Amino acid sequence: MLKKVAFTMFLSGVILCCSQKTNSVTATKEIKDDANDLIKETSPYLLQHAYNPVDWKAWNDESLKLAKDQNKLIVISVGYSACHWCHVMEEESFENDSVAQLMNDNFISIKVDREERPDVDQVYMSAVQLMTGSGGWPLNCITLPDGRPVFGGTYFTKTQWTKILEDMSLLYRNDPDKVIAYAEQLTEGVRNSNLITVNKENVQFNSLAMERMVKLWKSSLDFQNGGQQKAPKFPMPSNLNFLLRQSFQYDNEKLQEFVMTTLDKMAHGGIYDQLGGGFSRYSVDGRWHVPHFEKMLYDNAQLVSLYSKAYQLTKNEQYKTIVTETLDFVERELTQEEGAFYSSLDADSKTKEGELEEGAFYVWTKEELQSILGADFDMFKSYYNVNATGKWEKNNYILYKTKSNSEFLKTSNISEELLNKKIRDWKTKLLKVRSVRERPRTDDKVLTSWNALMLTAYIDAYRVFKNPTYLKRALKNATFIKDNQIDSDGSLFHNYKDGKSTIVGFSEDYAHTISAFIDLYQVTLDESWLEASKELMDYSIVHFSDETTQLFYFTSDAEASLITRKTEVIDNVIPSSNSVLAKSLFKLGHYYSNNNYADRAKQMLNNMNDQLERSPSAYSNWLALYLNYANPYYEVAISGTNALDKLNEIHRYYLPNILIAGATIDSKLPIMESRFIEYDTYIYVCVDGACKLPVENTKEAIEQLLK
Questions:
Q1: H/E element, 324
Q2: What are the b/e assignments for 91-105, b being 16+ CB within 10 Å?
Q3: Closest CA to 478 of 410, 436, 532, 438
């Protein structure tokens, strides 16, 4: 109904989808006379628009007050560094003087970086989805002076956008009551969208229900190429992480084979940078060949964790290589000296002719490869498909494997040792040439939530591979978050740039930081990280809680500028803040014997049960929590001077259904109390407070866990 009203009322024409390709830039802040207010910002995306003729404002109280004072409609335009069509609309419309004059005369125009302000994006994305049935970026929403939406869409051509601006400004001048009435209707829809109600029934989380949900999910999986049965293909690491665990705990060989197929196909595909490591955002086709070439921190963080766990289970050396190369990429391209991580790399880079072009940094012509590799070219082209299979456009090739090394060796008269040497030589030569190309630009803002995901990645890699450098990187980043992003009142900042921490944190910042600090405790046994996670959780409960549902709002109770507070529950590319918080509440309930934490986690999952059963693939991280209740979940407490050594032995195994606690000295942590015996180290395996006999031998403890 809302969709029909919107299109009848405003005759906006066709709304086009967004293609998410990076157009990121690290801009300078040299202030010139023709700069708009965005020149005062730190976001590279906002700075990119600082010299548009549009009189852009940033999202803040002053901009919103200005709209009310002048009684002007607001244009809220949301984008981000990795959005290709954001760049196109800027070039076509926002850099056009006549369009800019129309906007400046009739609207207050606010530009938003969705990565800095996901709260703003959530609200107006909900409005656009209600109006059009879909969403994407750029997100362009027109609102009343008080921020209530009246029109929205994604990318518009210059002609479409001009007509929308003219029609909306005319309608608001001539018939404001009609616009206000529609805004009231739409705002109510936004407030009620994705509304979660309290489930007062006592849901019995069980294996039969779990198997039904997985069976429903399986019908949408691509067992031949991996991922979902559609293009474009997104890695969706949260989904794969759950399916890996579920297949292990339920001995589902076919499902585990699907996960490994997906990991193999991604590792072989163009979505993975075969020379420099690291994953692009997604592939446009169904076989992981042609990526949109931007590299996002959050994708690479979660995929490092996933491939580490897959190696832990399978001992597949290819997965270790992927983790090593991806972390090398992160260290080389996305790490700043304080130990924090930048947000993304651009998809576009300059060609030899000086033009910005998608993928220019990564692709090769056949002639280039022949010149660089000489006599090795024939083997190289067979290995990386420099043929019709790997060809992209403009005679460029994306390096793309269709065979594993073992499969390639069966058809090649070469030893495994020599093949590995040749691969190393090829990469060295090509990386040397690539290094003189103009590299993709960096979005160098630091986001707390994404940094926490990368922190978790380093922890997972250290847990599995025991590389001390990984733990060093993890500790440095955790210390950065603790020293810079936690304010004196215990709250978190969302953003860090140019030495300044800014923007009040969102529930996603708390969720991922709490989770990462718990993980850091589980590899170091340093209780200060566990205590820090508890303090952040307590702050979240006070300032983010919806006490009716026991879920958490995305924004804190200090946020007053939005028309509503949203609750994030769907596990998308990044798991939802509520599912992550629920899992951490579950764990903290065990560590601190805290029934309030434990009861809240269970009620949160209880509330989500209907959604899980209807659409399991949209709630994969919730399903991971479901497994904790549907199957045995073990507390493993290690107490004694050799606790870290025992812990490292346990980490050799893929054990997704355990909670690690430990101490090398007497500990007052509730889960560790009265378990320390001087000169001896014991391992306690417990389920729901019932413990098996303590053992000193790690092998015996593993046997207790796998029975």
A1: helix 317-333
A2: ebbbebeebbebbee
A3: 532
Nearest to 596 by CA among 633, 635, 545, 634: 545
Collapsing DSSP to helix, strand or coil, 659 comes out as: strand
Compute the distance between CA of residue 246 and CA of residue 324 in angstroms, rounded to an integer. Answer: 26
Whether the ω angle into residue 138 lies within 30 degrees of 0, i.e. cis, is yes
CA distances to 118, 119, 553 from 493, in Å: 13, 14, 16
Residue 114: which of 142, 84, 83 has the closest Cα? 83
Residue type, 357: E
pLDDT of 3 reads 38
Check: CB of residue 465 under 8 Å from CB of residue 308.
yes
Adjacent-strand bridge partners of 495: 447, 502
The CA distance from 532 to 547, in Å, is: 23
9 pLDDT band, cuts 50/70/90, is: very low
**Cross-strand bridge partners of residue 669:** none
Top pLDDT among 50 and 30 is at 50
Q: Specify whether the CB–CB gap between 474 and 520 falls below 8 A.
A: yes
pLDDT tens-digit readout, 374-403:
999 999 999 999 999 999 999 999 999 999
The alpha carbon of 582 is separated from its chain's Cα centroid by a whole number of angstroms, namely 18
Give percent helix, percent strand, percent coil of the chain, each to the nearest 5.
50, 15, 35
**Residue 681 vs residues 280, 638, 650, 652, 687: alpha-carbon distances, Å:** 45, 7, 14, 19, 20
Tally of residues, the chain? 707
What is the edge-to-edge ordering of all strands in the sheet holding 442-443? 295-296, 344-345, 442-443
The counts of H helices and E strands in the chain are: 26, 23
The residues that bridge with 663 in the sheet, in sequence order, are 639
Phi-psi region of 640 (alpha: psi -120 to 50; beta: other; left: phi over 0): left
Answer for the pair 155, 88: CB distance below 8 angstroms, yes or no: yes
Q: What span, in angstroms and rounded, lies between the C-alpha atoms of 387 and 401? A: 11
- What backbone phi and psi angles, to 5 degrees, belong to 683? -115, 125
Give the count of beta carbons closer than 10 Å to the beta carbon of residue 66: 16
Do 555 and 494 touch, CB atoms closer than 8 A? no
Give, in degrees to the nearest 5, the angle at Cα 200 between 198 and 201. Answer: 130
Phi-psi region at 336: left, alpha or beta (left = phi > 0; alpha = psi -120 to 50): beta
CA 354, CA 376: separation in Å to the nearest integer? 30
Strand partners, 638: 662, 683
Which is nearest to 424 in space by CA: 296, 324, 330, 300? 324
Residue 537, CA distances (Å) to 73, 500, 512 in order: 39, 24, 11
Angle between helices 176-192 and 2-10 (to 10 degrees): 150
Dihedral (C-alpha) 516, 520, 521, 525: value to the nearest 10 degrees? 180
Instruction: Give the residue among 137, 96, 111 at the shortest CA–CA distance from 44.
Output: 111
Q: Where are the alpha helices (DSSP H) in 631-690?
A: 643-650
Is residue 232 reached through a cis peptide bond, with omega within 30 degrees of 0 on the bond before it?
A: yes
Structure tokens, 74: 């607001």
544 close to 553: Cβ distance less than 8 angstroms: yes
**Residue 638: DSSP 8-state:** E
Q: What is the pLDDT of residues 592-632, one digit of tens each?
A: 999 999 999 999 999 999 999 999 999 999 999 999 999 99
**Contact indicator for 135, 107 with CB cutoff of 8 Å:** no
Cα–Cα distance for residue pair 647/645, rounded to 1 Å: 5
Are 701 and 683 within 8 A, CB to CB? Answer: yes
